[in-house]
Design a protein that fits this description.
2 copies of one chain form a homodimer. With 471 residues, chain A is α/β, with parallel strands linked by helices. Chain A is built from 17 helices and 19 strands. Chain A folds into 2 domains: 56 residues, Urease, subunit C, domain 1; 294 residues, Metal-dependent hydrolases (TIM Barrel, Alpha-Beta Barrel), CATH 3.20.20. In chain A, strand 18 and strand 19 form a beta hairpin. Chains A and B meet through helix 3, helix 4, helix 11, helix 13 and helix 16 of A and helix 3, helix 4, helix 11, helix 13 and helix 16 of B.
Chain lengths: 471, 471
């Protein structure tokens, strides 16, 4: 009886399984709905294993990356509102420009081939005094955003006047920015006295704190243009408001001499002793730093913005980047303002950095291409302490990425993507740019700015600017 | 009577003049027939007065420039078979790349971030031995010509194997070349012994001498790879055939040590004492030259090809260009082969040169933008001793010119054309390229090469090349 029952049960289960086979298979998890699937390209992830997926895909929902993996695996797993075919192209994290003065594109090429101090005091400062208004900053930032989007930049660090206007234009362009309201010990285009500057900076931060794209910051100009007391006051404000502290540090030998004469120490030691050096500092240049300075930059977790082309053009010197990296300093790349470079092309900075440090160190394996790509992406994210969200293509991170063609004559043949990116690929090869899950550019068509009106808006100021510096 | 006659004559002459006024005016010389009138753009002439004509024109008949002047003046004077409107653009002499190895584009990025001697002996020489055939050179030169046309180069100096094939492809592409058949003291891909090399070089020169676009040359590799006797023999051949003598000189400290060990003198002094240094020499690099060497280079009228990016990337050093220019040495710019740079973009070399020498000399006014433009054009023409025909836009010179857009976001606003060209303009801004009165590219459409098949032809060799150097 028991045996008969058992047989019947086994038979029933067997029949049930046969009957259920179809429905059970159909019950495999249904495809997940996502917004964008970019598939078919080579995906340079910059993730922990530095994976480069030959035929990869990036799944995006809302503002974040859902998954990065082989195209075959992802295409079955997701139903995308939009699928982008990136076959033959490179998909990689957006470039992060860690130092610049966006609005200064309007001074691009206004005065070249002058030493930094002359250039700054005889051309730039007077030109700023006569020309920089809120309208100037708006026109300049629009042009800078247009140029940066076309060159594959998705995040930029800024330091300038009327930064509220810069933030507004950056947000409208859809770019991500760490945007520092500059403060300095002389009357500036936007604020005339230190108390006014502090008040304006606080109001600016209050207005933008928590914005999805804009991280407001306080930006004291430099150790030689802002007093010790004011450097500390600005730092206290940045700390209280919990925002980055953006500053020029040890850019020239002149600065080193000035600080040494006043205080008997190096600019970095001076800032460290002042107590303003910590993880919220984004220090541009750091050209003239000694071994103790480098250790301090590492210990204090300062983010360093290396601007090789600006430092070359202004004859400032060469930051000891390989030594900084070896000591554990976080280093990103920056273009600086277009008045001193003269463009906002971060791939060119990567190329120049990789070549320059080989020359300076007389070592052809110094700063390999892969390291230069890291500085332009994940390194930049670390400089602004946003590497949990930015700098690589990984599930959970914000969807800031670019699609780059890799089949132009100057990119052919292709043996190694890192090498090709750094040494041969140009800004003009960047085809599409996404920030926060939104395409700002597709097929080199910038969607968030009207190029013709941005260019006309900039050209309209040219004659007035030129006249203002005629001698 | 006399007075009355005189009055009558005066009256008759007066009436005659009135009657003839119309016909005389109509007898102004009729418009001259020309082939192309490029008008409306800013014409950067690089002529003796370095004129920059704001609304200029260039009149071209056949292969030569007939006149350069204000657009208004020229448009009435000539009837052109074709008028090209260059309004808003820059019209300037084509770029002259004074050093490279065109076919090596096929090794672009094959091995990077290695010291020159390792790179040369462990990767490049073995890769050449296993891959370089006449077919390889044809495919490589086609790709290089495509890349150079797209980047605004109209003349290039080359040194490689199977140069007959290189010459053939260059002529087909419509580019102008000083193309050196390389000779060296070890078996090469094309010829295995020195006598074979000499014989092949002479046959090559015989075939191409007098060609409108190709200037054949003899190219001994370097003082450390070609014996004294052979350097002299190659020079005697170049002299007898009256062609340029293209050679690498003083590129690395290794080379300096090698020559010093063998001969106790510098590479330049060695070549000078060998009697091979004269106006037909195009000497690439000249990185490690002392003051006496510089004086010798000037005295012997050697043309120097400065290759800043290659010298940086291979950690070779920095040629003392400002000192060479001050001493009267003729200096042009070169990209070197794409295996060591990794592209054929002469505007980038101008940018790098202008910035690099500011840094090395710690002088922000070293090598101003205008001087960098001169090196890329007229300086290059002087290096190859073709400045009577090339390097500037002047009546009587060959019509080798480029049209460059100047209104891209990264070129806006425009204050100074020299600055904008060197520090902000990119290869991708070059719109049209004319060599010898013939448009090779218009609106970025290359007319003399089928881009798709050139790219496919290069890619087809990639896997084989990669496998050949796998270790």
């Amino acid at each position: 009886m028991m045996a008969k029952t058992a047989r019947r049960v086994r038979l029933s289960v067997f029949l049930l399984l046969i009957l259920l086979r179809g429905p059970l298979a159909a019950q495999a998890p249904p495809p997940e709905q996502i917004d964008v699937l970019i598939q078919g390209g080579t995906v340079l992830t910059m993730d922990g294993q530095r994976r480069v997926l030959d035929s990869g895909a990036v799944a995006i929902r809302g503002e974040r990356i859902v998954e990065v993996g082989p195209a075959e695996a992802l295409s079955g797993k997701y139903t995308a509102a939009r699928t982008v075919d990136a076959t033959g192209k490179l998909v990689m994290p957006g470039l992060i420009n860690t130092h610049g003065h966006a609005a200064m594109v309007l001074f691009r090429g206004l005065a070249d081939d002058q030493p930094l101090q002359d250039w700054l005091t005889k051309t730039i400062f007077p030109a700023e005094a006569k020309n920089v208004t809120e309208d100037f900053v708006r026109r300049g930032v629009r042009l800078a955003c247009l140029e940066m989007i076309l060159a594959g930049t998705t995040t930029f660090v800024d330091m300038y006047w009327f930064e509220n206007a810069a933030a507004d234009e950056t947000a409208k362009a859809g770019l991500r920015g760490v945007l520092g309201q500059a403060v300095i010990d002389f009357p500036a285009p936007d604020n005339k006295t230190w108390p006014e500057m502090m008040k304006a900076a606080e109001a600016y931060v209050g207005k933008w704190k928590g914005h999805a794209l804009v991280t407001p910051a306080i930006a004291p100009h430099a150790p030689y243009t802002v007093s010790l007391e004011h450097l500390k006051e600005a730092h206290a404000l940045a700390t209280r408001l919990d925002v980055p502290y953006v500053i020029h540090v040890a850019e020239t030998q002149d600065e080193v001499r000035t600080i040494a004469t006043r205080w008997g120490i190096s600019p970095v030691a001076y800032l460290d002793q002042a107590g303003v050096m910590d993880a919220r500092m984004v220090a541009a240049h750091c050209v003239w730093v000694n071994d103790a300075d480098i250790r301090a930059l590492a210990r204090r977790q300062v983010g360093v913005a290396h601007c090789p082309q600006s430092n070359m053009k202004l004859a400032s010197g060469t930051a000891p980047v390989p030594a900084m990296l070896a000591a554990g300093v976080t280093v990103g790349l920056g273009t600086d303002g277009a008045a001193s470079n003269n463009d906002l092309d971060l791939l060119e900075e990567a190329d120049t950095a990789a070549k320059l440090h080989k020359l300076i160190g007389m070592k052809a394996d110094a700063l390999p291409a892969k390291q230069a790509v890291e500085m332009a992406t994940l390194g930049g994210a670390r400089v602004i302490k946003r590497d949990k969200d930015l700098g690589s293509l990984e599930a959970g991170k914000l969807a800031d990425l670019i699609v780059v063609r890799m089949d132009a004559p100057h990119q052919t043949p292709l043996y190694n993507v890192y090498s090709q990116l750094v040494y041969a690929t140009k800004a003009s090869d960047v085809e599409s740019v996404m920030v926060q899950g939104r395409f700002l550019m597709e097929g080199r068509d910038v969607k968030t700015l009207d190029a013709a009106s941005v260019l006309a808006g900039a050209q309209a100021l040219r004659d007035q600017i030129r006249k203002s510096v005629a001698r």
